[in-house]
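Researcher: Please translate sequence to structure tokens.
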Amino acid sequence: MEAFKGSMENILFLIIVSIVVLVLILTIALKKLPLLGQTGKLWAGETSSLPAYQTGSSQSEACVNQQKLEIYLKWPTEDGTISSWFCKEREGTSEPHRGIDIAVSKGTPVYAAESGIVYDVYRSCSERADCPNIEGRKGFGNYIILKHTDPNGKEYYTWYLHLKSVNVKKNQGIEKGKEIGKSGNTGYSEGPHLHFSISIEPIYDIQYMLNPCDYLECEKHRQVA
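Model: Translation complete:
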């Protein structure tokens, strides 16, 4: 009887140890889950399905803005492929990329991603020039900033940088899909492309930026290796 009692105690002890080990494993696993969320793809409400290396998996917490918009944007150029991704650190700088770069030929039409009004515009910059000389916007080249409102009343802004030419003026109403300019190589630019950003404030700072690929069909515009 004593032997049986001892065996039962040993079995109960092993069961308790197994439960404790399982709880520890689950706790460690749950603590790691937020790191997955930093890729901008894995939480409810996210729409980007791109591989981690194309959405900036090394992005800092500053790149993960929790605000979400109820929008679906039009691709802002005539085709093109993404040459630089949101929040990806670029060569020569430690700052995260605040939007996406879309490689297109100079003079390619640029379209309004959504209906809105022209919040700001600059049209006097030449290629490879340090302009405009505006604090926080140096190196943009010719640019357009559109202001929009989502169905829930949240305001947001779309940015179109390094343009060759601009077809709109400040405070002008713009319909989704309207051609607003031509892509170029003005400002700080290493080749013809459109830099496209989305922000929740009219401030070009990473804390206000959203991942454009959560609202665009970026999957169709990946560069083929």
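Researcher: Any highlights?
Model: The chain has one helix and ten strands.
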